[in-house]
Amino acid sequence: AIEVLTEKLTNFSPDACQMELEDGGGTWVCALLLAILFQDRDVIRAGATMRAIPSLANLLRSDEAIDRYFAAQALASLVCNGSRGTLLAVGNSGAAGGLISLLGYVELNISTLGALAEEFSLAHNPVQ
Known about the structure:
Distance between the termini: 27 Å
Oligomer: single chain
GO biological process, one term: regulation of cellulose biosynthetic process
GO molecular function, one term: microtubule binding
Shape: globular
């Protein structure tokens, strides 16, 4: 499952407006599913997990707030449940810049996404 979701996210480019129109919202759904999967430590140990990190870091640069929010959720699940190697991979992925841009924005503009995140037992504010 991780491989399929990662492949979908690999095709994402922050500059590809046409692809976002064709996507129909599937990008954030993939990030949400990864966030849910990454709550399981056995799933995080899979080799495909490390290949998902660069795609999630790239997704943090999306123009769509929902894409950025659930990419942050997936990375938060990895950080909370992963090993030191996972933490290093997330730290070295360049995700910090994308997460910094979410600070403050999450509280003001994404309150409805917080309710959706709670439905899936995810953190209300993944930036923290």
